[in-house]
Amino acid sequence: MVEDESGRRPFMRGIMVHSLMSRGVSFDDAYRVANAVREKIRGLGVVSTKDLVHAARDVLGAPEATEDYPRVRLPRPILVTGGGKGKTTPFSKGVFSQSLLAAAIEPSDAFDVAREIEGELRRRGISEIARSELRRLACETLERAADERAAQRYLAWRKQRDAKKPMILLLGGATGVGKTSLGHEVAYRLGIHRIVSTDAIRQVMRIMLSPDLVPAIHTSSYNAHQVVGELATTDDPVVDGFRAQATTVSIGVRAMMDRAVQENTSMILEGVSVVPGLIELQHYAERAHVIFLIVASLDEDAFQTRFAARGRDAAQRPPHRYLEHLNSILKIQDHLLELAEAEGVPIVDNSAFDTSVTSIIRHVTETLRKRDESSAADGV
Fold first, then answer.
1. In this predicted structure, what is the pLDDT of residue 66?
2. Distance between CA 234 and CA 155 in Å, rounded?
3. How wide is the angle at C-alpha 187 spanned by C-alphas 181 and 188, nearest 5°?
4. Among 157, 159, 156, 187, CA closest to 171
5. How far, in Å, CA of 29 to CA of 205, rounded?
6. Per-residue pLDDT, 172
7. pLDDT computed for residue 67 by the predictor
8. Beta-strand relationship, 79-81 and 2-4
9. Among residues 335, 211, 230, which one has the least CA distance to residue 273?
10. Rounded mean pLDDT of the chain?
11. What pLDDT is stored for residue 55 in this prediction?
């Protein structure tokens, strides 16, 4: 604990770094000093701000009497009230900027907005702020820094976080289009802690169901037709095999969605077995915000690039394995695109990762905003 005339508060390395940098010390030196000071005072229990100044001077090698050394002055943390169960938490630029990513802005812009808000609060001398007031201030700042739509997207997502309905984002698409990478990045930016792959669901089902009983789930989506026999549900055996596999795995998909609804937990569910038309979305209309997107890669060269990346990341998935079946994968993608068109499911062409992430977040938050406006108009 650090003690001064105003009381005691926890020692925070980040605050010391910020304080030193604001007085002209470089980040590297400030970080080094803060680490060293933390080690010096570890186990002391309570130290004074004067002790911190002496410790910092020792690390930098500055004489004690030197007045040129910027004094270490720890600003009191700004407290945010109105959390769950009346919880009060210190304001953190890092945490707050992460929440601002729901506005579909770049991470660097989100941090700039958070820093501007912190500066404004300190200029006003505010040491405590209600969470609702902080959101209002965030909306005002986003309108100036970006636009009104960005502020509305941020507010729509914050309302969703407080609601009694979970948000379930379904990301479908053929093998190799980048669903998993997109899903994890979107989950990080929206603060969603549960992300499930249909590959994992299929693996569990493989343990429960033998190849003799359900052969389609014991192989890849693009060669399932080799084990399921003649189905003739479409004009292409590759698509028939894929649909046989996806139909079985969709049982597990619905089970995961039901669990998310029961626990009121938002979730991203991604995978090749997330297929338009195989999941009855109307079944969840009153219990969850289900948002469906199909991820595609309309450039064949992009497929080959991603397959090469997969080969580097996972020795069990060499790129040639996918390239040998590229025609089948493209057939499955074409089928998914046709289903998406028929079912009214939006398509994300993953030609640029960052652009796709922003596009998905924008679609999610805009959908939530429109549904919120519709509910308000209906008096719900």
1. 39
2. 45
3. 95
4. 187
5. 54
6. 97
7. 46
8. unpaired
9. 335
10. 85
11. 81
Mean of pLDDT values over 179-192: 94
- Whether the predicted pLDDT of 313 surpasses 60: no
DSSP label of 71: P
CA angle 294, 295, 299 (to 5 degrees): 130
The 195-197 sheet, strands edge to edge: 195-197, 267-271, 167-172, 289-296, 347-349
φ, ψ at 47 (rounded to 5°): -130, 155
3-state class (DSSP) for residue 130: strand
Of 201, 374, 370, 194, the C-alpha closest to 273 is 201
Question: 47: which strand partners?
Answer: 2
Read off the tokens for 318. Answer: 């060499």
Other CB atoms within 10 Å distance of the CB of residue 266 = 22
- C-alpha 267/C-alpha 273 separation (Å) is 16
Sketch the domain layout of the chain as residue ranges.
Answer: 2-60, 79-162, 167-377
Q: pLDDT per residue over 116-141, tens digit each?
A: 999 899 889 898 999 999 999 999 99
**Signed CA dihedral, 360, 362, 365, 370: sign only:** negative
Q: Per the structure block, which two tokens stand in for 197? A: 């792959």
Please provide the CATH number assigned to the domain covering 167-377.
Answer: 3.40.50.300
